[in-house]
Amino acid sequence: MSNVESNLHSQTRWQKFRASNLGYSFLSNKVAMISMAVFVAIVVMAVFAPLIAPFDPYDPRQQDIMNSEMAPIWWAGPRDFTDPQFILGTDAQGRDLWSAILYGTRLSLMIGVCAVALQAFLGISIGLISGYVGGRTDSLLMRLADIQLSFSTLMVAIIFLAVTQALFGSEVFNRYAIFFLIAVIGVSEWPQYARTVRATVLAEKKKEYVDAAQVLGFGPIRIMVRHILPNSVSPIFVISTVQVANAIISEASLSFLGLGMPVSQPSLGSLISGGFEFIFSGSWWITTIPGVVLVVLVLVINLLGDWLRDVLNPKLYKG
């Protein structure tokens, strides 16, 4: 074994990451590092919300209406009441806002990630079939994508959720709201993936390795999934990063309009909506603090997406 090979084997994963283009770009980009640190901190706090949060916002026994609209401990106006156990104050129902934000962030992230997973599954499947089969199938699927793109996500979601709420009633809708949101946000955004994957398939299916796989007798599904799809991984990662942020914004917008998560199951959107009517009465923290958390979360995800796009695109990456 040569010295070069022994050095490669002795390197740790961290050393290999630092030596790669991705690692070098990340460690030399302060915006990406700060964004990643903030994002990881938010995700960790959201995942471990039951351990970090001092109260359970889902448990009505831990809520006292007499504690409603308490100000944060660092804000004490002439007419405000504070309590050391409520760091960020309380909402109109007397819930601890810090606990509600932790649980709400976890719920918003869950909806965003699951909705993007559904988008990716539908879009990648349709894009592979459309690009590989071609012909009338390609034309039909792409026309469906054009029709889908002509409608905004919020417009489709508002119509679907409003009709669903009217058909099943508020009680059933609130019970399964998270599934309705994941479904409507996921189905509304699949063309973004389909068009990207289709473009990659059209470029790759004429190459020699695809012809060789066909000669060896491999089926179309194996060729699409095992040979062509890996060449679409980079743009899929970039799209997914942006789409997670868009899905979180969509969930917050729908919850703010009363078509998303109910008040009893706080997400960032429902927290902002629940405190909006109190913002001019002096209890600004009920809406403002969850709003700041939402803005920061979406901002760092978009910044990471921009950095990832620049690194994975050889035309944009300068080293």
Description:
By secondary structure, this protein is an all-alpha fold. It has one domain: MetI-like fold (Orthogonal Bundle). It is built from 15 helices and no strands. It has helices at residues 3-10, 13-19, 21-27, 30-47, 49-52, 97-133, 135-149, 153-175, 177-188, 190-204, 208-215, 220-228, 233-256, 268-276, 285-312. Helix 13 (233-256) runs parallel beside helix 14 (268-276). It is globular and about 75 Å long. The model has no long low-confidence stretch (mean pLDDT 82). Residues 105-305 form the ABC transmembrane type-1 domain. It is found in: Cell membrane. It is a multi-pass membrane protein.
- Multimeric state of these chains? single chain
Number of domains: 1
CATH architecture: Orthogonal Bundle
Query: How would you sum up the global shape?
Result: globular
Residue windows where pLDDT falls under 50 for at least 5 positions: none
**Care to count the β-strands?**
0
Supply Rg: 24 Å
The rounded distance between the terminal residues' Cα atoms is 31 Å
Write the layout of secondary structure elements.
Layout: H1 3-10, H2 13-19, H3 21-27, H4 30-47, H5 49-52, H6 97-133, H7 135-149, H8 153-175, H9 177-188, H10 190-204, H11 208-215, H12 220-228, H13 233-256, H14 268-276, H15 285-312
Give a brief description.
With 319 residues, this protein is mostly helical. It has helices at residues 3-10, 13-19, 21-27, 30-47, 49-52, 97-133, 135-149, 153-175, 177-188, 190-204, 208-215, 220-228, 233-256, 268-276, 285-312. The protein is globular.
